[in-house]
Amino acid sequence: MDVEAVLQKILPRIRPTDEERAFVEGLMRELETIAEETIESLGLDVKPYFVGSLAKDTYLAGDHDVDLFLAFPLDTPLEELREKGLELGKTIAERLDSYEIAYAEHPYVRARYRGVKVDLVPCYDVESWRDVKTAVDRSILHNRWVFENLRGRNDEVRLLKRFLKGINAYGSEIYIRGFSGYLAEILTIRYGSFLGVLENADFMLRQKIIDPGNWLKREHEVAMKTVRREAEADRPLIVIDPVDPRRNVAANLGWERYGVFYFRAAQFLEGPSEGFFFPRGQKSGSYLAELRRKGTHLVTLVFQAPGLVEDILLPQLERSARGFEKALTREGFKVLGWNVGHEGSKAFIMLEVDRRERERMMIKPGPEFFTERGRDFYRKNDRVWIIGKRLFAEKVVREGVVEVILELLEKNQVAMGKSVRENIRDAGIMLDYVPKELENEAYLFLSREKWNLKG
């Protein structure tokens, strides 16, 4: 199937229908009315703005999260913005279906209304990057920039977002380190279309710096500071935010996710298919068969997951896995790879090691040579020598990897994430066995299908 035919089959699946658009527009009108009435009743000088993909009309069919920003005047003190912003958010949310307080740079309200997630976020009413005081303020400027520059290429953004989701490279959260929605919009605008972005996967990486706002001319020093900082941090891409020369839009994009995009883009251009956008279910197989095939061993630590959001939990688990890798390497085991995650209330760390046991040579002191016990010691050991009156021998000791891990934990010799340290100390440790709910995860890890670039 040629590329255009594939895209024509994908578009109806990802473009919102007329009924869906009518629902979204109605929902936004209702929310705007509720917000305006609440602002008035509290006597506040606040402007409600819709931001995000819903407001920019780059959302995918069925994906209706609403971001309603409550913009306070620039002269509002930060403490007041936090306090009054939260109060306003809660008062609006009381007229919706349900809500909870969530925390980012400052507290905001996460509500639900007519089956849709609605984030009510206080911010400053900024006109330019120089006004930005909190991390969320730029979102209003992002919306304006995309509106002014997208010029009807909304479906091209949808194709890119769906492609990135299909190849598991979408989302700038720290535990994904992929492409954000805003980055997908900028790249589509910069390269003109979905296919334009894919065709430039290699060029982007070599060019490194993308400057759609022309900041390197307009604000050279500020923009160069951003470029130097991000180049030093070795980011795959530096995309200077078209609304703020101090920020790299691709700062959270990791090399691994860019690498996946790099190979998948080339594969799609060579052999276009719907499977890139809507992959068929994950591969599955036997983790025990993988262990037999490779002759390696799997150590799995399972423990109670602390109540942390994924953004915090997963980096803590990764840090701990790297700690185990270092500690076991020091102890003479080879760690061939690690994997972390959580399933329900349990978290896990998987370590693939080269062997179950290590042999260690020990020097064994014995009795004086001229005693009965000395003669017995001499008979039982192969390599025996005398120092002074005492006998000594070499002894080979076999130690299992699980015992070594227990000893390392007991002696506090593993660097672990501080929020998960105590939970890991109480972990159940399994060798070449995992609980039923982790069987597929173990297979995907050991077979490397979890990260396989050719699958």
Task: Give the tags.
Poly(a)-polymerase, middle domain; 4-stranded antiparallel beta sheet; Alpha-Beta Plaits; 14 strands; 455 residues; 5-stranded mixed beta sheet
Question: What does it look like?
Answer:
The protein is an alpha+beta fold and 455 residues long. It has four domains: 122 residues, Beta Polymerase, domain 2 (2-Layer Sandwich), CATH 3.30.460; 126 residues, Poly(a)-polymerase, middle domain, CATH 1.10.1410.30; 116 residues, Alpha-Beta Plaits (2-Layer Sandwich); 33 residues, no CATH class. Helices cover 44% and strands 21% of the residues. The strands form four sheets. It has a five-stranded mixed beta sheet with strand order 1-2-5-4-3, with helices on both faces. The protein has a four-stranded antiparallel beta sheet with strand order 9-10-8-14, sandwiched between helices. Helix 1 packs across helix 6, helix 6 crosses helix 7 and helix 13 packs parallel to helix 18. It is elongated. The chain starts with a helix and ends in a 9-residue tail after the last helix.
* Proportion of residues in extended strands: 15-25%
- Mind telling me the CATH superfamily name of the largest domain? CCA tRNA nucleotidyltransferase, domain 2
- Number of structural domains: 4
Enumerate how many helices there are, as a single number: 18
Mean pLDDT comes to 95
User: CATH fold name of the largest domain, please?
Assistant: Poly(a)-polymerase, middle domain
Overall spatial form: elongated
Please state the CA-atom Rg, rounded to the nearest Å: 29 Å
What CATH first level of the largest domain would be assigned? Mainly Alpha
Which parts are unreliable, with pLDDT below 50 for 5 consecutive residues or more? none
GO molecular function, one term: CCACCA tRNA nucleotidyltransferase activity
Protein name: CCA-adding enzyme
Keywords: ATP-binding, Magnesium, Metal-binding, Nucleotide-binding, Nucleotidyltransferase, RNA repair, RNA-binding, Transferase, tRNA processing
InterPro entries: CAA_C, CCA-adding_arc, CCA_tRNA_nucleotrans_2, NT_2-5OAS_ClassI-CCAase, NT_sf, NuclTrfase_I-like_C, Polymerase_NTP_transf_dom, tRNA_NucTransf2
